[in-house]
Amino acid sequence: MWYVSTRGIAPRVNFEGALFSGYASDGGLFMPEELPQLDKETLSQWSTLSYPGLVKELCTLFVGPELIPRDDLDDLIDRAFSRFRHKEVVHLSRLRNGLNVLELWHGVTYAFKDLSLCCTAQFLQYFLGKREKHVTVVVGTSGDTGSAAIESVQGAKNMDIIVLLPKGRCTKIQELQMTTVLKENVHVFEVEGNSDELDEPIKAVFADVAFVKKHHLMSLNSINWSRVLVQMAHHFFAYFRCAPSLDSHPLPPVEVVVPTGAAGNLAAGCIAQKMGLPIRLVVAVNRNDIIHRTVRRGDFSLSEAVKPTLASAMDMQVPYNMERIFWLLSGSDSQATRVLMEQFERTQSLKLPKELHSKVSYYPYTTEKGKGAATQLTQGLEVCCGPRRGSVTDTPGTASGR
Ligand SMILES: *Cc1c(COP(=O)(O)O)cnc(C)c1O
Predict the structure, then answer these.
(1) Domain ranges of the chain
(2) Where are the bilayer-spanning segments (predicted)?
(3) Which of 21-30, 48-57, 271-280, 348-357 has the lowest mean pLDDT?
(4) For 226-400, CATH number?
(5) More confident residue, 21 or 136
(6) Which residue did the predictor score with more confidence, 83 or 194?
(7) 158 near 128, Cβ under 8 Å?
(8) Of the candidates 366, 268, 277, which has an alpha carbon nearest to the alpha carbon of residue 322?
(9) Residue among 113, 172, 213, 274 flagged as catalytic
(10) Among this protein's residues, is 113 annotated catalytic?
(11) Is the minimum distance from the CB of 56 to ligand 1 under 6 angstroms?
């Protein structure tokens, strides 16, 4: 399996190359050159697999046995999930009215990032051990990513991790999760300022290519392809547990609501959908609503500042994985994606071309059918979270490809 940059200029790489790179050298993100299409037989075979079983199948497809033989891969994935509290790793909980909740929080730090980071860290250690190399992971965090990244690499022989956290701005639990790990390869620093200010020195470090090379630095945020890959399993697992039956033709659709920050989990869903999984994706955002505006109006432009909310892991100004989604929905058109993203980088504002916008919002909640679905969704969420206080100011939006 080869990976190409969404901007089409950087040379293609294999899984190992994508794993160790953050951005491609042309500023794009790595995506599989071709997406395997899953036929009905494969889907039906996969439908009875456990969550780790699905991760193994997906990784076999996207890593390739020439890089990690299947036996090794199975060991790595089993080791990755060995410290999860739930025996299923991920559990689907059934509420009333056909609403289900995918419990992605049974990892050590309770963040859903545990799932993809544990696997990613295992892949990194596998290649580092084989090549006798060492890397230092540098992470800036408002909580979830830092705790989960530390948990995934603590004690690893060929990796060190440096975490910067904004003083007084993480929850107490997360601060303790980060500052109480006593392994020698874990280095945690508290810094003054908010998470935007914290991003600046980290960006500056990664912009210094020679420095990064010399010290073997890498990031572990969700621009990393390996994290997106593992997250695809969430969507397959949810689909197989929710779909009434796989005997009908076409297969029944399942709607997946994705709380979204950097759009990593959303990009994973879009890829799963392109591979033939009949899911409909609904994006949930908080007041940091750039994706909502993109879906509704094609308005992919930066807001003035990050608005702090209770869901701090979703307080993102730039959902960088949207680039992967734009590339997918434009039919892997890297030329078009490059023009769009470069314009966004220059002006921090982008109006999506009509055709791309229509693909992003293919099931608008402005139609009668859509309004029904929106009401059902809101009612479902009330069952889950209790009656809403405050007000919902706008109807939800969808994002998806056909
Ligand atoms: C990281 C995180 C998100 C955002 O996920 P993305 O895949 O980056 O959109 C949402 N909720 C929680 C709790 C998170 O930890």
Answers:
(1) 226-400
(2) none
(3) 21-30
(4) 3.40.50
(5) 136
(6) 83
(7) yes
(8) 268
(9) 113
(10) yes
(11) no
